[in-house]
Specification:
Length: 480
């Protein structure tokens, strides 16, 4: 594989989330009145796919898109560059498209789209050709607004050598993929629009429509994404592969972008198509469980937002809103939770019993690396958060980038701050802040023999030959 960047091609949008609470209906119509608590902007469309690849998959990312000359475009470029995404702008002769979502208590109420019909996109110049030729892989994230249809850009994509994987995430209003694409990733609805027959939602019907679409498109493989039902990988002359996701609940907004970005990153890492699809299904499931695009962005920004009293503090965490409104007790704890073990679970369960809501302040990947070393974390923040939120005793997870959760705590202002008993007589660094707003620090008993560092050490001590076990041997051990 090339050492170049993962290149995302497509229409970048500006997404805005307006969060608040609903306590009454409007007197002039039977509609809810949203008392706005805060608003936040984030990249959408191909911009979201680029950010997810850069943030979660740890590869350099370049985005080829079309931006207007308005304030929305400047804000969008700033958000992308702040996430480490290099932007190559084709130019857009029109306003930057925006999607504004109004939400209350964690639920979406309304979406307002701005920007109107697609505007003309500028032509791809020599810089675009150079970026594509140096790519480790290309993800075309088409949102039907003209970038993927630009003739010079399409010619450059078709001229790429077979050694550069190309993933094409299509849109109903967009063009067909260019020839030679490695994997196209339409969703169930898109395939049904393109190939209505045979009808039905079963695996056989979807696979038959996938076979027909393979005949229409010059692509090597088709991966039909099916939401909670996983995906179907369809290839000519080969059995259909149907990986099923872990059953999760959450916000599916952005799950398709997460799937496509994870699939492309896995191909960059040298995975074959089957392994890449399996990995992408797992990543998309974890993404949904962690709150989708809004949840991922809010978790990333939580620490930064708590620095500004004008922004959201605990208002961005619906569970905190509920416990505050009811006069309950808010409990918080923190840590890396790199490999969740029995000691963690017992401590979290005990912490939850101290109040009415438990929020876990989770170290980001950058924070863990600074504290634990360059080889940590073993599990990325998005997946660590998903595992924690799956526990019945955890009501919410807030990510923080600093070495301590001080800023996150100032936003949450919990009634009780819990730490493991291994701190002993050492003064907790957060104690003064917690006591400053009338909270209390509580130590819970340390669970002997349970340690992430110890688990990692045991694995590393084992000889390589003992780290893999055949299925038959595993079954034999369970039965005996």
């Amino acid at each position: 594989m090339s050492g170049g960047p993962l290149v995302v091609v497509g229409d970048a949008l500006l997404d805005r989330d307006v969060d608040g609470t609903v306590e009454r209906l409007s007197p002039d119509a039977p509609i809810p009145v949203v008392d706005e608590a805060c608003s936040a902007s984030r990249p959408g469309g191909a911009g979201l796919a680029a950010v997810l690849a850069a943030r979660a998959d740890g590869v350099p990312v370049t985005l080829i898109t079309a931006l207007g000359g308005d304030e929305g475009a400047r804000e969008l470029r700033g958000l992308l560059e702040a996430e480490g995404v290099t932007v190559v702008d084709l130019g857009l002769r029109g306003p930057t498209p925006e999607k504004v979502r109004f939400r209350a208590d964690g639920r979406s109420l309304l979406r307002v789209d701005r920007g109107g019909d697609p505007s003309p996109v500028g032509p791809a110049g020599p810089e675009v050709h150079g970026v594509l030729e140096s790519a480790a892989a290309v993800l075309v994230s088409d949102y039907g607004r003209g970038v993927a249809a630009e003739p010079r850009l399409r010619s450059a994509l078709e001229a790429l050598p077979a050694s550069i994987p190309v993933v094409w995430d299509p849109h109903p209003r967009g063009p067909a993929p260019t020839s030679g694409v490695t994997v196209a990733t339409p969703n169930d609805s898109e395939v049904s629009q393109l190939v209505p027959e045979p009808g039905g939602t079963g695996v056989a019907a979807v696979a038959a429509r996938g076979d027909a679409l393979l005949g229409q498109w010059d692509v090597a493989a088709l991966c039909v994404t099916r939401g909670s039902r996983g995906a179907l990988l369809v290839r000519r002359g080969m059995p259909v592969m149907a990986p099923a996701p872990v059953a999760v609940e959450g916000d599916p907004c952005g799950a398709g972008d997460r799937f496509a970005a994870a699939l492309t990153a896995a191909l960059v890492a040298g995975r074959d198509v089957e392994s890449a699809v399996l990995e992408a299904v797992e990543m998309a499931s974890a993404f949904v469980s962690a709150g989708g695009a809004g949840g991922a962005w809010a978790a990333r920004a939580a620490a930064a937002q708590s620095r500004d009293s004008g922004d959201c503090g605990d208002e961005r965490v619906p569970a905190v809103d509920r416990v505050r409104a009811s006069g309950g007790t808010l409990v918080a704890t923190g840590g890396c939770f790199d490999l969740l073990h029995a000691g963690h679970v017992r401590t979290l369960e005990a912490a939850r019993r101290l109040g009415d809501c438990l929020v876990v302040c989770l170290n980001s990947d950058e924070s863990v690396r600074r504290l634990k070393g360059a080889d940590r974390p073993l599990v990325p923040a998005e997946d660590r958060a998903a595992v924690l939120e799956a526990l019945g005793c955890v009501d919410a997870v807030v990510l923080f980038d600093e070495d301590t959760p001080q800023r996150a705590l100032e936003g949450l202002r919990p009634d009780i701050w819990v730490k493991g008993g291994d701190y002993g007589d050492v003064e907790l660094p957060e104690a003064r802040a917690v006591e400053g707003w009338g909270g209390r620090c509580v130590l819970l008993p340390y669970v002997e023999g349970r340690s992430t560092t110890r688990l990692i050490g045991k694995v590393r001590e084992r000889p390589p030959s003992s780290r893999s076990t055949s299925t038959e041997e595993a079954v034999r051990r369970v039965r005996t």
